[in-house]
């Protein structure tokens, strides 16, 4: 039987496997390989209790009849069409979907590898243990490096997390640091007033327009020669594609992501498709995909569908994702919901917070249900009046 391998058990990988099973049916065996036996709910790792932020991979895969292998992929050989695992095993494939995600891009300064992060569940657990230790201090100081989406959400959650550990939350000193001159620079000006108001209400210190010269888990050195001692330094400094992607042939973007064709296929290795944070897809005309769960979910569905279609000699579907929204958690101040690539605010405060809670606690989780329900979930929605051949995917 033909074989479709899916590398990575994140949002893109799971959706790719479900879609591949739906299209391939009994014509191919679908196997998902993941380093961990569960899907980490990564968008929530800024929250308390990171150990709970996971969901089963084996249950939905078993329900639809896909195989599941826990293993660490170390290499991909496009010529032999096989992948190597750390334990010495190797598996061949007829079609491959690479959905191995992204990793934290640490600042290129000495000691950056020592600082805390919340990029992965394991690192988020380590930071949470440190937070529990320092919560008992009279006035703990925590520096969050990176005033982007994740840094803002973490900084605004920290007082409640310190309180949850029985600590002196209101006396804590929380500093948000970035080399940009504004917070949320990549988010644009639309949501910035709501962000700045929330940070002010939470008494978050903003150190903007500064450059780092060195780091550790408790200290920061700056380009002007000054330094800062803290109880913890945690990095939220952006993402880059996983190291495995570097070994694939063909051009990559500045974040190490594969530049695919319109069908998410690797042009230099046409048996390989990419999804999620491994690929720079064209979400909408002139707008590349972002490192986001929102894009990963659809990228996975399209890559899985196309890998199976390609194997069965069916027409491929071009990837598009014309609808784009953001919902940024603002802690005690609620949230801000924006629409469109220019991020025009739609809702703020507790009304937006209710939407954020629904997204974080319901919508991004893998579905439960019968085989038919799971496969229906993997369908790619088309706009009203559209068809799979028009390329106008919603």
Describe what is shown at a glance.
The chain has about 400 residues and is α/β, with parallel strands linked by helices.
Quick tags:
disordered C terminus, 6-stranded mixed sheet, 5-stranded parallel sheet, globular, 26 strands, 394 residues, alpha/beta
Structural overview:
This protein is an alpha/beta fold. It has helices at residues 11-24, 58-64, 121-134, 149-164, 192-201, 293-311, 349-363, 371-377, and strands at residues 2-7, 28-34, 38-40, 54-56, 67-70, 73-77, 82-85, 90-92, 95-98, 102-104, 116-117, 141-145, 173-178, 205-208, 212-215, 219-222, 227-229, 232-235, 239-241, 265-266, 269-274, 282-284, 287-288, 325-329, 335-339, 344-348. Strands 5-2-1-9-21-20 form a six-stranded mixed sheet. The chain has a five-stranded parallel sheet with strand order 11-18-12-13-14, with helices on one face. β13, α5 and β14 form a beta-alpha-beta unit. It is globular and about 65 Å long. The protein starts with a strand and ends in a 17-residue tail after the last helix.
Structural class: alpha/beta
Strand residue content = 25-35%
Number of helical stretches of at least 4 residues: 8
The geometry reads as: globular
How do the strands of the widest beta sheet line up side by side?
5-2-1-9-21-20
Distance between the termini: 33 Å
**Radius of gyration over all CA atoms, rounded:** 21 Å
Number of strands: 26
- Helical fraction: 25-40%
**Most strands sheet:** 6 strands, mixed
The average pLDDT score comes to: 95
Low-confidence stretches: 382-394
List the helices and strands and how they pair.
Blueprint: E1 2-7, H1 11-24, E2 28-34, E3 38-40, E4 54-56, H2 58-64, E5 67-70, E6 73-77, E7 82-85, E8 90-92, E9 95-98, E10 102-104, E11 116-117, H3 121-134, E12 141-145, H4 149-164, E13 173-178, H5 192-201, E14 205-208, E15 212-215, E16 219-222, E17 227-229, E18 232-235, E19 239-241, E20 265-266, E21 269-274, E22 282-284, E23 287-288, H6 293-311, E24 325-329, E25 335-339, E26 344-348, H7 349-363, H8 371-377
Parallel strand pairs: 1-2, 1-9, 2-5, 9-21, 11-18, 12-13, 12-18, 13-14
Antiparallel strand pairs: 3-4, 6-7, 7-8, 10-19, 15-16, 16-17, 20-21, 22-23, 24-25, 25-26
